Amino acid sequence: MIDRATALAFDLSAPPDDFYEDPFPTYHALRHWDPVHRGPDGSYFLTRYDDVVAVYRDHQRFSSDKRVEFAPRFGDSPLYEHHTSSVVFRDPPDHTRIRKLFAPAFTPRALTALQGRVVTLVDSLLDRAAARGGMNVVEDFAAALPIALIGDMLGVPGDERGPLRDWSLAILGALEMAPGAERLETGNRAVEEFKAYLRRLIAERRRRPSQDPGEILSALIAAEDAGDRLTEIELLHQCIFLLNAGHETTTNLIANAVAALIEHPSEWTRLRADPGLLQSAVEEFLRYQSPNQLGNRRLVADAVVGGVAMPAGTLVTLGIGAANRDPAQFPEPDRLDLGRTPNRHMAFITGIHACAGMWLARMEGHVALGRLAARFERLRAVAPPVRARRARFRVVSSFRIELG
User: What value does the mean pLDDT take over residues 224-244?
Assistant: First the structure.
C-alpha cells in the first residue's frame, strides 16, 4: 500500500503519472489513511462509499451548479456557456424542467424500440471486425456504437457524423482538474463548431420534421418553441450534452469491459459458457472500471461529511471509482466477479442527478458484450490498452485486438 505520507501529500490537481494508468492504489491508500482528504486548494476528496452516497443524496446542501467553480477556469468562454447550461450542472428548478424533456427518450418503451437498432449496429460492426480478423476496440466498436445511436437520436445524417467524437472528447477533456491552455483552446473551438452545426441542423429539422420515432431532437425543438420551457441556448447545449453523456459512458463501459475480459480470461470463459451472467456482468464492469471516476459538489450550507466539518462554499470531489472499490461495500473489491451480487455500485451516481441515460448505456453494453461473447471464442490483445491521460473519466483511447 502507498505509505501515509504519500497519501497525505496527494494533490488531485497534479497527480503522479502512474495515477492515470491505475488510480486504485491511490484510492485505497487515501481511504485507509485520509478518507476525507483536504487538498492544497482547500477542497476535499472523498473515497469512502458511504460518504459519496450521502453527498449525492443531499442536493439541498450540495449544489451541482458550477458557475462559481468554472468562472475562474473558463472565463467568459464557450466552454463556460456550455458547462453551466448543461442539465448535469444545474440545480432545481432548472434541472427538473430540463431533465423532464429527455424523459420520453429513455422510457422502457422507447428503449425497447431502440434495441433492434442497437442489435443491427453491433452486428454490422462485428461483421467488419470478423472480416479483418480483429479491430481497434475503441474506434471500431466501443465508440462507433454510441456515436451511431446518438447520431440517430439527434437526427445527424450519417455522412455528417465524422466530427462528433472529436468534439465530444475536446469538450469533456476541459473538465479535467488542470486542463491546460491547449485543452481549453481545443474545447472552446469544439463548442463553437458544434453549436454552428446544430443551428443548421435545427433549421433543417424545422423545415423538414423527422419521421424517425427514435429521434429526440424534434421533441427538444418543440420544447424550445414553447418559449417558457427551453431557450435556444439551452436547446443547443442539451444536444451537446446528449452526445457527450451518451457517448462517453458507453464507450468507456465497453472498452474497459473488453480490456478486463482479456486480462481475466477465466471470466471470459465463464461469460461465454453462461450467457445468463450478462446482466450482472455489465454491472460488474461498471463497478470495476467506472466510466466516470470523479464528480463534484459545492456546499451551499455548512455540513459535516465523514466526521469533518465543512463550511458553505467548500468544493467536494466525489471519488466514484474509489467508492466502487470500497471493501466496506464490496468484498474483495479489486477482484472482477461477473456474478457479483449484490452490486450497488455508484457508476451512475444516485439522487436527483442519477444518470438519465443509465438504462440506455446498460442496454448498449448488454447487446455489445453479449453479441461479442456469442460470436467469438478467443480475444487476444495485439498490444496493451492505451489509456488517456485523464483522471475524471476512465478512458481507453486505443486498444487493438485479434478475434477468433
Answer: 79
Asked whether the beta carbons of 350 and 56 are under 8 A apart, the reply is yes
Provide long-range contacts, Cβ within 8 A and 24+ apart, for 224-229: 229/97, 229/101
Q: Could you tell me which of 145, 166, 350 has the C-alpha nearest to residue 257? A: 145
> Closest Cα to residue 314, out of 292, 337, 296, 341?
296
The Cα-based distances of 367 to 86, 120, 194 in angstroms read: 29, 10, 29
Predicted confidence band of residue 105 (pLDDT cuts 50, 70, 90):
confident
242-273 per-position pLDDT tens digit: 888 888 899 999 999 999 999 999 999 999 99
Residues pairing with 292 in the sheet: 393
Burial of 225 (0-12, 13-18, 19+ CB in 10 A): exposed
Q: Which helix (H) or strand (E) holds 370?
A: helix 358-375
Q: What is the C-alpha separation between 384 and 320, in angstroms, rounded? A: 25
Cβ density class 298-314: b for 16+ within 10 Å, e for less:
bbbeebebbeeebeeeb
Which residues partner with 304 through β-bridges? 309
Q: Give kind and range of the element (H or E) at residue 63.
A: strand 62-63
Kindly report whether the peptide bond that precedes residue 342 is cis, defined as omega within 30 degrees of 0: yes
Distances (CA, A) of 33 to 7, 28, 41, 152, 158: 7, 9, 19, 48, 51
What's this model's pTM, rounded to 2 decimal places? 0.93
pLDDT digit string (tens) for 47-80?
Answer: 999 999 999 999 999 999 988 888 888 999 999 9
**Average pLDDT across the chain, whole number:** 92
Residue ranges of the alpha helices (H) in 137-216?
137, 144-154, 164-173, 180-207
pLDDT tier, 224 (very low <50, low <70, confident <90, very high otherwise): low
Place of cell 442519477: 354
pLDDT of residue 226: 62
* Residue type at position 225: D
